[in-house]
Amino acid sequence: MMEPGVPDRHPDRPRTFWTMRRRQLLWVWGFLAVPVLFYGVIRFYPTGQAFWLSLTDWDLMSDPSFIGVENYTRLFADPQFGRVFRNTFAYLIMGTPISLILSFIIAYALDRVRFGHTFLRALYFLPFITTAAAMAWVWRWFYQPAPIGVINDFLSGFGIPQMAFLNSTTWALPSIMVTAIWAGLGFQIIIFMAGLRAIPNTYYEAARIDGLGDWAILRRITLPLLKPTTVFLVVFSSIGFLRIFDQVYNMTTNDPGGPLGSTKPLVLMIYQTAFSSYQMGYAAAQTVVLFTILLVVSLLQLWVLRERT
Amino acid sequence: MHKGILFAGLMAGISPFTVTAAQAVEIEYWQYVFETRVNAMDQLIAAFEAANPDITVKQVTFPYADYQTRVVAANMARQGPDVLQLFYGWADQFIGGKVIQPLSPDAFPHAEIEADFFPIVSAMKRGDDYYGLPTAVRSLALFYNKNLMTAAGLDPNTPPTTLEELVTQAKAMTEVDGAGNMATAGMTLDMAGQDHQWWREVLVRQFGGAPYSEDGATVTYNDAAGAAALKFYTDLQLVEKIGQRGFMDEGQAAFRAGKAGFTIDGTFRLGSFRTIEDFEWGVTELPANAEGVRSNYASYFANAIGAGAQGEELEAAQKFLAYISSEEAMQIWLDVVGELPARRSAALTEANLANPVYAPFLKGLEYAHTTLFVDEAAQRQTTIDMANRILIEGQPVEDSVAAAAEAEQAILDRAKK
User: Fold this and answer.
1) Where is the signal peptide (chain B) (predicted)?
2) How many Å lie between the alpha carbon of A239 and the closest alpha carbon of chain B?
């Protein structure tokens, strides 16, 4: 139907049910139905199912029976959960700022380099397109004690005592985080560089004419105008660190998340509970907690960073 | 329940197997992918089909990591196999989930099973019923590097027979570089490998204890014997300094690379160690304690009949299971896969007992124990953590044993619910 007040552009054409607008809507919804259905069946239905399963004691073999919030009370009383929770936030709280600051510095510098620019950029991007598992195994080998570990061989060549790296409850988590940061760096650099390029040159020219120094330009122009890029990367990288799994699992396959659970993130605990112990209900309760954390952290970040945009 | 079936369908993928029942009966056999095992089963199926022209057997395999999930998912979708292979430690879950059915005593008389098979077959018995029979069994032994022994001035033909000799000989082979780092380990220390089995079923018993109660429901290693056994193990690194956890990443890797004198491993490692070309190695029984007490840990994959098999399929499945647990099948399995026969008569032949590689494992079977795991990965983890608390954090041995016992008891209790 035509909206009132809009003149009918084809007064001589008979009015049918299938107006242009309706036909367009049909097409739009026809195309949208595919992803909507896909997400409904593959994403939202299992998500809803997970909430229900978290209230049962399903072991994959017998029928799930309703046990109320028992999984949740067990989870919050589980000493392993406390450790895993701390580990997960350690990855987030250290990983996100370090990777963002590093990638910004590199992107900022790369943006000014003309000589070998493409080559350098490709070099930084290379880790991002490499399989996480392969990368994790190479780093795992770097971190080994002498006589096979590259780093420790190097250290002992100078008579410096070995670092325990993955064999230490203190250093294992930072060691794994380094590889995770390195793996994601290329992507963040590219996004930052795109953001930098998107700032119109006229602002810089105006600032120079006004006599602003490099530092003032960075603080007053570059950083504020990069805010949308930064918000995107903060949220993106936070979610990445909260969901860290590949690096940890591949670097500690003998003692997953070890030693003594010092590197185990929430996702690995969920994986073990579900597919090694077959406690699907308990694992579902853990995913609900992870979902809540991801939601809260993402919303919080969007809210905090929105204000000053 | 239909939600469960939908979920199972999603996980199992679309099942391409629709049984076309003409005159011939077709049954499905499931196992996980491992090249030699699949080849051996192909041979067995060919021989079985030649003898039973009215039965065809279809072998279906999945990667090990997916195997359990596939079986469970297919069972929920009523698409389960007729005969399947399972680790003995999964028996409780598979019985509870009605994945497998008890073996009929008419087709498989209990007296015969108990007389012919090694005693560890009892791990497949629940109540009055047997739920599966093994083709092959695995046990542990001590592998030694003859070249390293010779280099250390030891006689490569007299490997250690007692724990004390194990320590002295390993010490002779240990080498430390100028910076104080271990260059060659006398012995591998790898709880995540087979050492947790060695500690649980062998060392604890040799120090006078028992790891679990008779029914496997209670942890009983939290005593002086358990602590002494653990102290012996952790002292290998802390006091004797003949090995180091994490050395060369994995114990078997260190031994393969010729950087470790001794390692404890199972029959399943033979295939990998047979490709070693840089040095000569040998195998011997696990060392006895000072009083001559020996023990071993044996395990196996059993074959069982799926809960869905009925009528003529059940009959065919019984025939097939009887064949793949026959002496003839066990010999083929030994030749192709290298795993030891589960029947005494097939295992303890003169040829096998004279074989320098098989003999130590076979002797071990006579006095082996089988842990009734309810969640192998989780129980192994408690043992790994128990050693790490001492080796990394310096926790007193008694405290660490107590904490491990408490954690493992909780796992056992949860499984019983």
Assistant:
1) 1-21
2) 26
Asked whether residue B87 falls in the same domain as residue B75, the answer is yes
The C-alpha atoms of residue B330 and residue B368 are separated, in whole angstroms, by: 19
Please state, in angstroms and rounded to a whole number, the distance separating the CA atoms of residues B19 and B131: 25
Q: Are residues B118 and B168 in the same domain?
A: no
- B54/B160 same-domain check: no
* One domain, residues B124 and B218: no
B96 closest CB neighbour out of A62, A255, A272: A62
- CATH code assigned at B283: 3.40.190.10
CA dihedral B147, B150, B152, B154 (to 10 degrees): 130
How many beta-carbon pairs below 8 A join chains A and B? Answer: 94
Q: Which residues of chain B have a CB within 8 Å of the CB of A141?
A: 249
Count of domains observed in chain B:
2
* Distance (Å, whole) CA A33 – CA A36: 5
DSSP-derived pairing of the beta strands B340-341 and B260-266: unpaired
The answer to whether B181 contacts A62, with C-beta atoms less than 8 Å apart, is no
Nearest chain B CA: its distance from A5 CA (Å): 52
Q: What is the token pair recorded at A193?
A: 């560089």
The C-alpha R_g of chain B, in whole angstroms, comes to 23
Task: Read off the amino acid at residue A109.
Answer: A
B148 and B263 inside one domain: yes
CA distances to A257, A286, B147, B379, B411 from B374, rounded to whole Å, are 21, 22, 41, 8, 8
Domain ends where: B369, B385, B403? Answer: B369
A146 inside 8 A of chain B by CB:
yes
Block means of pLDDT (10 residues each) for chain B, 417 residues, are 46 42 79 90 95 94 87 86 92 86 94 91 91 93 96 94 96 88 93 95 96 92 96 96 92 94 92 90 96 94 93 93 94 88 91 92 91 89 96 95 96 85
- For chain A, give every domain's residue range: 78-306
| pLDDT, tens digit (0-9, with 9 covering 90-100), for A104-136 | 999 999 988 888 888 888 888 888 888 888 999
**A254 close contact with B: CB closer than 8 A:** yes
Strand B260-266 and strand B182-187: the pairing is: parallel
Domain containing B74 equals 2-14+23-138+299-369
Contact of B345 with chain A, judged by CB distance below 8 Å, is answered with: no
Residues B208 and B284 in one domain: yes
C-beta atoms of B181 and A147 within 8 A: yes
Residue A159: its H or E element: none
Measure B28 CA to nearest chain A CA, in Å: 21
**In terms of domains, do B124 and B166 share one?**
no
Residues B99 and B181 in one domain: no
Assign domain A78-306 to a CATH class.
mainly alpha
Mutate to test the interface with B, among A51, A56, A58, A61 (most CBs of B within 10 A): A61
- Residues in A closer than 8 angstroms to B182, CB to CB, are 145-146
Domain boundary pick from B369, B384, B408:
B369
Q: What whole-number distance in Å separates Cα of residue B200 and Cα of residue B221?
A: 8
For residue range A44-83, what is the model confidence (pLDDT) as tens digits?
898 899 999 999 988 877 778 899 899 999 999 998 999 9
Q: Best interface-test mutation with A: which of B75, B388, B395, B414 has the largest number of A CBs within 10 A?
A: B388
Nearest C-alpha of chain A: how many angstroms from B189?
13
